[in-house]
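User: quick one, fold this
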Amino acid sequence: MQRREALRGFAAGVAGLVSLPAWANGWNGQRLPKSTLLCPAEDTLLAEVVETIIPRTDTPGAKELGVHRFVQTMVTDCYDQKAQENLTKGLASLEKFSQEFFKKPFAQGTPAQRIYLLEGMEISDDPTRKAFFGLVKGLTIQGYMASEYVMTNITHYEMIPGRFHGCVPVKQS
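Assistant:
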């Protein structure tokens, strides 16, 4: 390898390392693009659905931890067009289901009424309703369990399990 090539490669590496913090500094929740899959009303409805699945108790609920945004992001970025349509159609179906049974929107229902509606979707003969509930329930559990609060305060996740203590006195017998 020539010295000039080595110096050129070294200079490019140093320039990349110098510019990396400024570039990565723009990565925060406020600057990231918002998901455009759901309109604000559907987003609010999805937040109420995930809160019904994992409600607030002595720990924060799914809505408070932003699991509905996780569900939207996963469906938008990782699922096909059919699953995206299933999410939007499922939310519309849930709202219609709520109006038929209780004559009010899902968000205004009592917790018992909400659970009744979601259980009805789970055991429904309509495959779209059933698939919607399965998708949302699975992603809600996944998002809740992967949230920072749960990982640090409930499961006590350790990034690197097991510690190496290299300098430990050993007692000889």
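User: anything notable?
Assistant: Helices lie at 3-24, 40-53, 67-78, 81-102, 111-122, 127-145, 148-154.
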